[in-house]
Amino acid sequence: MNFEDFKKKKDEEVVSCVLDSIDCYAVLISRYEHKLKKYILRISDISPEETDDLLQDIFISVYQNLNSFDQNLSFSSWIYRIAHNIVINNWKKNKKHHNNISVEDNMFLVESIFNENSIETELNNNFNQEEIKKAFAKMDKKYREVLILKFIEGKDYKEISDILQKPMGSIATLINRGKKNFIKEYYEYTT
Amino acid sequence: MNTQLSNKIIQQIKKQEITPRAKIFFIFKNMFFWLFSIFSVLIGAISFATILYNLSGKDEIFTSFSYLPFFWIIILSLFLVLSIKNYQKTDNFYKYNTYFIFLIIIIFAFGFGAIMFSLGVGQKTETLSQKYLPFYNRYAKILTIKKEIFKNKLIKIGITPEILAQHPELKEKIDKKFRENVLGKTYLYSPSECLEKKYSCENKNIKFSDELGCGCRKLYLK
Predict the structure, then answer these.
(1) Which of A149, A181, B14, B78 has its CA 20 to 30 A from that of A24?
(2) In what order do the strands lie in the sheet with B187-189?
C-alpha cells in the first residue's frame, strides 16, 4: 500500500479503505493523533500517559464503530464526538473534575474571545495566565467546551453541534453566554 | 505515514481480532429506538383515550380530584417520558430542540388519543383492563363504589329546589359545602330523607350527625 496515494484523499474515502484493510487505518490515525491529543489535553487536563491511553481507546472505539459513521457528517466531527464522549466517560469513571485547559492555549482563546467582543486590544497585553486559569476553572464545563471548540479548535457551529450533539441554536446560545461568562469571571479576578 | 501510536493500535486491533461492528447492527439499533419511541407514543395515546373515557360525562370530577383516573395519567406520563428518552437515543436526535420534540410527542399522543377515544378504544381498554388486570380491577371497583355513593346521595338525592325554597338559609351553606366537598365525604339530605336514611346509613357504617339544623343533616363516610 502506498500511503502517498492517500495524502490527497478525503477522510471519508479513507474510511472506505479502512473497512477493507486495517492497514489504511494508519492514515486516519496519523491525521488525527495530534489534533485529538491536544483536544483531550485542552478539555481534560490529564497526564500525557493517560492521554495516550485515552487516544488508544478512542481509535479502537472509532474502528469498532466505523460502520455507524454517518456520511452526512464530516469525519472530523464524528471522531471528535467519540473523543469527547470517551473523555467525558473517563471523567465520570474517575470522578475527577478537571477544570483547566493547557496553558499555551489560554492566550489564543482569550484573545479570540476579547476580539470577538470588540474589547480594546491594549488589554490583550496585560492578560495574566493565573487569572485566566482561575476564570476558566470557575466557568461551567458546558461553556468551556464550546469555547474551546469554537476558538481553539476552530470548529463552526454545525461541527460543534455534531460533536456535542446539541442543536445549533443551543450552541450559539452557549457560545454567547460562555463569552460573557468568561469575561465576567476574568474581570472579577483582575479587578 | 505510520506513527508509533498507529502501529501500536493496529497491532492491538490485529492481536485482539477486533472488527468493526456490522452496519446492520447500527441500523437495527437506530430502528429499535425509533420504533420503541413510536410505540410509547401509541401507548400514551391509548392511555389518553382511556382518560377521556373515564372523564367523559362525569360531572363529579369537577368537585373532586380523586375522581381523576390516576392510573392512566401515570401510564400516560411514563410512556411520554419513555418516548422522548428513546428518541434521544436515535441518530441525529440532537438536531432539534428536546422541548420542541417533547411538545410534538405530546401533541401526537393527545391527537391520536382523541381519535382513539372517538373510535371507542378508551372504553375497550378500560373494559379489558378491568377484566385482565387484577390490581386495576380492585382499583376500578373502589372508584366505582365511591362514584355510585357520590352520585346517588349527593347528586341525585341531594338538595332539591323544593328544599331550598323551604330553607333559604341553606343556600349559602350548601354552596360552601359543595366547594369544600372532597370525595363525597359530605352529604346533604332533605329532612325526610334524613329520617329514612338514618337506619340504613348506620348499617353501612355511615356516621350520622345533625350540624346544619332545620332538619337538614350531614353524613360522613367513615
Answers:
(1) A149
(2) B187-189, B217-221, B206-209
